[in-house]
Design a protein that fits this description.
By secondary structure, the protein is mainly alpha-helical. It contains 5 helices and no strands. Helix 4 packs antiparallel against helix 5. The longest helix has 13 residues. About 0% of the residues are buried. The mean pLDDT is about 80.
């Protein structure tokens, strides 16, 4: 998908993982490096800090365990 989109169309990727941990998603350090290279080449990187809106509202509803597990799995 990333290769097909590269320099042809827009692609939005959201993640809570830093680039150094992308190999765990792609299963290969070289594959992760290639994806990061393509994403960063013409891309704009936005980094947000702070509390997660979804986790905060899940905690208000009393779903603390589910919200925390969901945040870890994303």
């Amino acid at each position: 998908m990333v290769s097909d989109s590269y320099e042809r169309r827009s692609l939005v990727i959201t993640t809570n993982l830093e680039f150094s941990r992308w190999a765990t998603v792609f299963g290969d350090d070289q594959m992760a490096a290639a994806v990061v290279d393509r994403v960063c080449h013409h891309g704009r990187l936005l980094q947000f800090h702070g509390e997660s809106y979804r986790v905060r509202h899940a905690l208000m509803r009393g779903g603390s365990e589910t919200a925390t597990e969901g945040a870890r799995s994303m």
